[in-house]
Design a protein that fits this description.
The protein is of the alpha+beta class and 150 residues long. It contains 2 helices and 5 strands, in the order H-E-E-E-E-E-H. The chain is rod-shaped, with a radius of gyration of 29 Å.
Length: 150
C-alpha cells in the first residue's frame, strides 16, 4: 500500500492587522510622517474584509500617498493612484519596499518641480525676448527722427 502525504492546510489568516504587523508597517511609514511628507495614517479594510493601511498626505489635500494591504498571506503596496508597487508574502520586505516607495515619491515631486520651473523660465524668456526685440526695432526706426530734433 502507498501512502500519499497531502500538504497541510495553513492556519487561517487572522482578521485585521496583528499588533506586530501594524507596528512594522507604521514604523516603515513613520519617517514620512516626521518629515512632513505625510500627515498620518488610517486603518481600513477592503471590500472582502482584508486589512489596509492608508498613508495620508499633507494638508490641505490630505490625499492617499500609499496603500498597504494584506490579502490572505500576501502584502500589497500601491501608490496613491492605485498602481501596484510591490506584492510579496514576506513582511520584512514589505517595510523595505514601503520606505523605497516613499523615497521615489519624493524624487517624483522634486522632478515635477524642476520641470515646472524650467517651463516657467522658458515662458518668461519668450515673453521678455519679444518685448526687447520690438523695442530695439522701434528704437532703430525712430532714432533718425530723434537725432534730427536734437
Amino acid at each position: 500500500m502507498t501512502v500519499v502525504k497531502f500538504p497541510r492546510r495553513p492556519a487561517p489568516v487572522p482578521q485585521g492587522w496583528q499588533p506586530a504587523e501594524l507596528q512594522q508597517v507604521v514604523g516603515a511609514c513613520a519617517g514620512a510622517v516626521s518629515d512632513g511628507a505625510a500627515s498620518g495614517w488610517e486603518v481600513g479594510t477592503t471590500e472582502c474584509g482584508d486589512p489596509q493601511l492608508y498613508l495620508i498626505g499633507p494638508p490641505p489635500a490630505y490625499e492617499c500617498i500609499l496603500c498597504i494591504s494584506r490579502v490572505d498571506r500576501r502584502y500589497v503596496i500601491e501608490d496613491g493612484d492605485g498602481i501596484l508597487l510591490f506584492e510579496h508574502d514576506n513582511p520584512m520586505l514589505l517595510a523595505e519596499h514601503a520606505i523605497a516607495a516613499l523615497r521615489r515619491r519624493k524624487g517624483a515631486i522634486v522632478a515635477r518641480i524642476a520641470v515646472a520651473w524650467c517651463a516657467l523660465q522658458e515662458v518668461f524668456e519668450e515673453k521678455t525676448e519679444a518685448l526687447t526685440a520690438e523695442s530695439t526695432e522701434l528704437l532703430t526706426s525712430i532714432s533718425p527722427q530723434l537725432a534730427a530734433l536734437a
